[in-house]
Amino acid sequence: MEEKVTNILIVGVGGQGTLLTSRIIAQVAVQMGFDVKVSEIHGMAQRGGSVVSQVRYGSQVFSPIISKGEADIILAFEKIEAARWLDYLKPEGMVIINNERVNSLPVMSGKVKYPDQIHEKVAELVPKTTIVDATDIAVRCGNSRAANVVLVGMLSQAMGIPAEEVEKAVTAIVPAKALDVNLKAFREGFKLA
Amino acid sequence: MKKLLIGNEAIARGAYEAGATVASAYPGTPSTEIVSSFAQYDDVYAEWSPNEKVALEVAAGASIGGARTLAAMKHVGVNVAADPLFSFAYTGVNGGLVIVSADDPGLHSSQNEQDNRGYGRFAKIPVIEPSDSQEALDYTRLAFDISEQFDTMVMLRITTRLAHSQTMVEIGEKQEIPLKPYKKNAQKYVMLPGYARGRHVEVEKHLQQLQEYAETTPLNRVEMDDTSLGIITSGIPYQYVKEAFPQASILKLGMVNPLPKELITTFAARVDKLVVVEELEPVIEEQVRSWGIDVIGKEQFTLLGEYSAEFLRAKLAGIEEPAGFGLDKEIPARPPLLCAGCPHRGVFHLLRRMRLVVAGDIGCYTLGAISPLEGMDTCICMGASIGTALGMEKARGEEFAAKTVAVIGDSTFVHSGITGLIDVVYNGGTSTVLILDNDTTAMTGHQDHPATGMDIRRDPAPKLDIEGLVRAIGVKNIRVVDPLNLKELEAALKEELNRREPSVIICKRPCALLSTAVKPPYSLYVDKEICNGCKVCIRLGCPGVTFIDEEKVAEINDSCIACGLCEQVCKVEAVKRTEVK
Hints:
The complex is a heterodimer.
Chain A: E1 5-13, H1 18-31, E2 35-39, E3 50-58, E4 71-76, H2 79-84, E5 89-98, H3 105-108, H4 118-125, E6 129-132, H5 134-141, H6 147-159, H7 163-173, H8 179-192
Parallel strand pairs in A: 1-4, 4-5, 5-6
Antiparallel strand pairs in A: 1-3, 2-3
Chain B: E1 2-6, H1 7-17, E2 22-25, H2 33-38, E3 45-48, H3 52-64, E4 69-74, H4 75-80, H5 82-91, E5 97-103, H6 117-123, E6 127-128, H7 133-149, E7 154-159, H8 160-163, E8 165-170, H9 186-189, H10 193-216, E9 220-223, E10 226-233, H11 237-244, E11 248-253, E12 255-257, H12 261-270, E13 273-277, H13 283-290, H14 309-317, H15 344-353, E14 357-359, H16 384-396, H17 398-401, E15 404-409, H18 410-426, E16 432-437, H19 466-473, E17 477-481, H20 486-498, E18 503-508, E19 522-526, E20 545-548, E21 553-556, H21 565-569, E22 575-579
Parallel strand pairs in B: 2-3, 2-4, 4-5, 5-7, 6-7, 10-11, 10-13, 14-15, 15-16, 16-18, 17-18
Antiparallel strand pairs in B: 1-8, 6-12, 9-11, 19-22, 20-21
Helix pairs in contact in B: 1-7, 3-5, 11-14, 16-18
């Protein structure tokens, strides 16, 4: 019998904190007693490139990377990155998109237009799409960089993971000086979903 | 205790538990975190070496001195260390020595995707390959025993997906391994021809014993299931095989050199169809085929890039991947780029504007090669820039040299640029060399090096004086400039290019991501009334400036740290300052 593995794809722009987010989600899965694998990208792509972290958990996980059409959830820190990785989503999967625009080089130089309504196209294709102004919420909590934890809050609520489990993981992973802001941001996100 | 560790942290833990007390490395993705993690344990010595050759020599010395020792590097770093690698393969060890080669199929962060399992056969050393972090820890521990039992260094070969994937690991106890006694033994450790001949005999003897060991080692295991399909695999591809073909019979090789011929032959006889699944080179496949065993391999797969479960399903079972939504085709690419305020940006802007030929090198600044800066002509390997510039001059003459520069970072210069500069001076070159000194090894995640004044633990260390070193080499024309002061840099470049002598321009400014980065007491904005939409600032490729299509003006965003480059290139003075308290 094949046991069910949960696949979460975290996508964004190098420097947005995908790595930290994947570590928080993975820590939650560890606390809940699952086998967990996380695949991260270090190095050159971290310099403002398109980045992806992958978290897989279940009773036994083999491949550290998610195949196309296999992700249960895509957590997107930026709008076009949600579209870039959408082929990895299951037909019945869920997408949570931060309504944030980060121009890439071809856009900045005016060579290509940024497709500003791309998140709406995603929502048309995927019924379970949520779009949220996570950066604004994070700013209200004290730091725009905590937008990723707002999204983690929404993800936890959507997946039925108890808030205490996630708060424990956030406390274990996030540096002490940023903890208060992050816990606040997490609770705001958790309330939203 | 169980915890999640990336493969690199697990290797460091394995070395620590095996009683290793010395580790050395030069940073390189995907290997960097191995020795930086090891450095966090108490009572061990760890160092950033100037380059991989020195790292392996330090490791060899520590091994001869009786300690269990770890050396780690990325795949191309093993090329740099190849000289001591091949000779130390002859001398053998005293304390166990494990060299980690972190390969990069798919070129996530490298200039090639060479398969370093090839070094195993070439240098006649055992190569072992883990498939997850637990095995990374266990195999590293075992590798030290193998090293001492068979008197040979052991290569632990990993790939990016192992190095940077977190999986569950059971943390073990540290073994107390006493330092082995040091005994002078010139016939073993002095590689004179007369002694080396004797060592070659030993190497072949040990290899024979290793071949026997390979047949029974727990590193290799058979997982028999459905016998209609048998798959020989190792490393990360094992995980893809388990994911894609859970019912198949598998021979999982934890030791990929030497191969267990008997074990493989027996396994082959038990299955109907035999397949080898290995990324990059057909290392296992070719050997198996040479024994007269019929096997499916590269003709079904590819020599290029990374594999995945979906790739195996498609190639072996004809299961096509899902069609998907196709939205990815509509959206702009997002290549990596130099950070806002990066001190390298102005240099490449200027080099392109001056239409110079640029022999480049390896680091963040290699991004100066891509659009819109496009300020680089060549980039071969670590330290190649200076020799390349000299070669161009010798081929095309001094006139050509007057419009050619070599560009190299501080860490790369220390790694392997110094000898190139010696060559320029010694052989009468007139090259102009730019040393981009940002006070760190930035691309790999800000590691220290001999010219930063800090060691691997960030404790103060003697600081290499780059300027003094360059002078000692015999370069008479040395300047130190701020690379974000375009006028000053341009004047320096013009003067030094016209000089028929070697020159070095040290472009000195800390990386914008360091806490020591220069932050002016004002912020910048674009006065939209003045901006004429000429896009000269946009062509700097800075994430801090965006072009607003609707208004045909540039705009400065939050990521700006007021480096002032756009202010300098703006022809209509539209970039203004606001004082920050």
